[in-house]
Amino acid sequence: MPNQVPQLALMLTTRSGPGVLHAVTGVIAAHQGDITSVTIVEHTPGLTQLLLEVTVPDADGLLGALRHAEVVQQIDPVATFQHVFGKRVIIMGGGAQVGQVAIGAITEADRHNIRGEKISVDTIPLVGEQPLAEAVRAVPRLPRARVLVLAGSLMGGEIEKAVREVRAQGLTVISLNMAGSVPEASDLVVTDPVQAGVMAVMAIADTARFRIDRLSKRTF
Amino acid sequence: MPNQVPQLALMLTTRSGPGVLHAVTGVIAAHQGDITSVTIVEHTPGLTQLLLEVTVPDADGLLGALRHAEVVQQIDPVATFQHVFGKRVIIMGGGAQVGQVAIGAITEADRHNIRGEKISVDTIPLVGEQPLAEAVRAVPRLPRARVLVLAGSLMGGEIEKAVREVRAQGLTVISLNMAGSVPEASDLVVTDPVQAGVMAVMAIADTARFRIDRLSKRTF
Known about the structure:
alpha/beta
């Protein structure tokens, strides 16, 4: 699971051309930096802008070395997405129920974010077994995604398989109490959608005393 | 703005060590591929997993060349985030109002997604001028973010500056009708939070006939 917290996010302006990414990654590797993400923000024949998120023991040392790298023209530190948007709750399924789970999750995240947490709540209304299974399988690849809530009235088959796969990769899955085999494949089953959203946030908030693996029952 | 649509997403398993990213990016460059994102999913001394999103004229040619690259051990095509999660509406501000805007946006996105659109609705409840200004400034760097809704009762100062900056970068900003200077800096001002969410989705849905720049008034 993407639990690594990059403490350095940089917008690098470099010259373009082959070898630039190689040179930049070489400097980072020499400082034992672990690149968690590279996004090419702009790319013209003369100039490239790279957004890098890096975990590194000596951030100042790396910044100094990058400033002296031949390919680098400008370095602008930016806020990491981890710092700005924090951990993510992902909610997917039918629009009516996704909306109610979102209300619970957003209201609860608000209470924790006021106390210094950073939790964001991301949703996608989706219909159909294949699109939902595909979306479930994509969640572990989403940066900072920590818990998935499946909100609907009937989910099973390929979606159940996808739930078992992503749980094996370390993702926590909460399901509404619904028809189909998804509830029995999930970590937690909740009947009230607002409560499902609240519990999803509580499960990942460091400011909450709530651990799904400590619950004596798994259906509410 | 990140409007480029990568049509190829690959999970590459490679050997680890210096030069791997250089070799992989060289193969992609030789096929005129434009890398929009590289995420290092796993990185051990023996093995590296790279998630790449690439826009490329000849996808099959690139896949063939990567299969023959010395450093590449395995290639698994995965669904692009664009394909799975689509365009993003971002909602930020106070929890109570973010929740109501989300209800409108999720319900409206549901109606469009059923007709083949892919729109997701992402939120973060946040309080305070500096955290909100920082979050507004980060939105243009978020992949696939197309419209921002600011939901609160009072926003101005540094947030207003941030709104003007991100609009200059091409992002559409919708504000609730509220105290402070943010409404006058925004593309559209809406009083009802549910309607603000609905309009945000309509503004980016190809399945909707609604363009903010064609409206004769900007406050509702």
